[in-house]
Design goal:
Layout: E1 7-8, H1 13-22, E2 40-42, E3 44-46, E4 48-51, E5 55-68, E6 73-78, E7 85-86, E8 91-95, H2 98-123, H3 127-174, H4 180-223, H5 227-253, E9 255-257, E10 262-267, E11 274-275, E12 280-297, E13 309-314, E14 317-329, E15 339-347, E16 358-363, E17 370-374, E18 379-381, E19 384-391, E20 394-400, E21 402-404, E22 409-413, E23 423-425, E24 438-440
Parallel strand pairs: 2-24
Antiparallel strand pairs: 1-4, 3-23, 4-17, 5-12, 5-16, 6-8, 6-11, 7-10, 8-9, 10-12, 12-15, 13-14, 13-16, 14-15, 17-22, 18-19, 19-20, 19-23, 21-22
Length: 441
């Protein structure tokens, strides 16, 4: 994004000054006060004005949200299309829930069974129950052995997927041999492997807990109910209640809703397809406010402050000005240039501004337009500064305020009596009085 710089309004100013300054040593004699009708010869120049053309930037949405699914599942219905306006909480996608509901019922049944076991233990056990408890321990230990093997296998797969994903990212950053799609696929495989590893660990932990529970039950059966045995069974019951909550969450997560108000600008899912965790299904943007992103040069960044009011014009609506506010000024320049990122927030409730279009930003409180003049045109008297404005051959002594530009030039603030394109004497005599007649050479 390029920032336009200050430009001279009168293109012929430098040529006029070469002519004006070349004879400044002998062109002006002492000014006369027009009492006898004499005219003081002077050379003149037209004042040029510097204008601030502002900055060009690109309009972007204030907020863009990628909507993803927390769980994998087959899509049952999709309720919105691209361009639809949605509110926070609106249902966008419904996944099939038959299997999830069955898992929930299974978890609830486990809670019922655990409650029954706790009640039986508290009431005492028979010899048949002791044998059954011993059998349960053996079965639980066998199941745990299987989960340990599954964990090792899942860990190996996770490490392989991690190495592959890291390699793809490094190759993508350093060469063009790997595409963004390759990296995305690598990331998806990494996420799948990580999830599988975590699930295997969870299963192993659950199996270990079952072993502990089975052993505790056996001890309880053999020794009779104790407080520790009751606590162990209660812990198992708590675990199963947690499983019910997880199953219930999965049923709820099958209904995917919008997390914000906005407009759907991209839809990437169809009924019958499989939704995967972390894969974007929709993109929703909030266009009630927009951000204009600018790049400001290091010579201009000092004049930019967060909270400053600005005027914004979009190229598609050149006759309308939108009020905006500078919301962000980066303290760090862009990596490959000496420009600094700046963001401007603009209200867009009418929907007139479109993301991707170019906008111009101008400071509301920019300094007054400045004129440029040679130092030889300044008369200093009584700690004040003046220039001689020449209007139809008549001298007008105008008090001015100047700012140093360089060794030969100064800036002059424009005022009601002095504007761009008006003529001033280049090397006036300090004896010229207001109203004197001058001969322009």
């Amino acid at each position: 994004m390029k920032t336009r710089h200050q430009i001279w309004v009168p293109a012929v100013l430098s040529l006029a000054l070469v002519s004006a300054l070349s004879g400044c040593g002998s062109s002006v004699t002492g000014g006369q006060a027009n009492g006898a009708g004499a005219e003081a010869p002077v050379k003149v120049m037209k004042l040029g004005q510097l204008t601030d053309s502002g900055w060009s930037g690109k309009i972007n949405p204030d907020q863009e949200v990628k909507i993803v699914s927390k769980i994998s599942g087959k899509v049952s219905t999709v309720n919105v299309n691209e361009g639809a306006a949605v509110k926070k909480g609106d249902v966008l996608v419904q996944l099939e829930t038959d299997d999830l509901v069955q898992q929930l019922k299974q978890a609830e049944s486990g809670v019922v069974a655990s409650n029954a076991k706790l009640a039986d233990t508290q009431s005492g056990a028979r010899s048949q129950e002791i044998k059954a408890a011993e059998s349960s321990v053996r079965a639980a230990e066998a199941a745990q052995g299987q989960t340990v093997a599954a964990v090792e296998q899942a860990k190996a797969g996770f490490e392989l997927a991690t190495n592959t994903y890291n390699r793809l990212r490094n190759q993508f950053d350093s060469s063009s041999a790997v595409t963004k799609e390759d990296v995305d696929r690598g990331k998806l495989e990494y996420e799948k492997a990580r999830t599988g590893y975590e699930q295997a660990q969870a299963s192993s932990q659950a199996a270990a807990a079952q072993v502990d529970a089975a052993r505790a039950k056996l001890e309880l059966t053999q020794a009779g109910a104790t407080s520790n045995t009751i606590m162990a069974l209660q812990a198992d019951l708590d675990r199963l209640n947690a499983a019910v909550q997880l199953a219930s969450n999965s049923v709820n997560n099958a209904t995917i809703t919008s997390p914000t108000d906005g407009i759907v600008i991209k839809r990437s899912i169809q009924p019958g397809e499989m939704a995967q965790p972390g894969v974007a299904l929709f993109s929703v943007v909030d266009m009630n406010q927009v951000q204009v992103e600018l790049s400001v040069t290091d010579t201009q960044i000092g004049s930019i402050k967060a909270g400053t009011a600005v005027d914004v014009k979009a190229v598609n609506i050149p006759d309308k000005t939108f009020p905006g506010t500078i919301s962000f000024v980066s303290p760090v320049s862009n990596a490959n240039s000496n420009t600094f990122p700046v963001k401007v927030t603009v209200d867009n409730k009418d929907g007139l501004l479109f993301a991707g279009t170019v906008a111009e930003v101008h400071l509301k409180d920019a300094a007054k337009a400045r004129l440029e003049a040679p130092k030889s045109s300044i008369i200093k008297k009584d700690d004040k500064e003046y220039v001689i404005k020449v209007d139809n051959g008549t001298a007008h002594k105008i008090e001015v305020k100047t700012t140093e530009k360089n060794q030969d030039w100064v800036y002059i603030e424009a005022n009601a009596n002095l504007q761009a394109q008006q003529q001033i004497a280049v090397t006036p005599s300090d004896s010229i009085v207001d109203g004197a007649k001058l001969k322009v050479e």
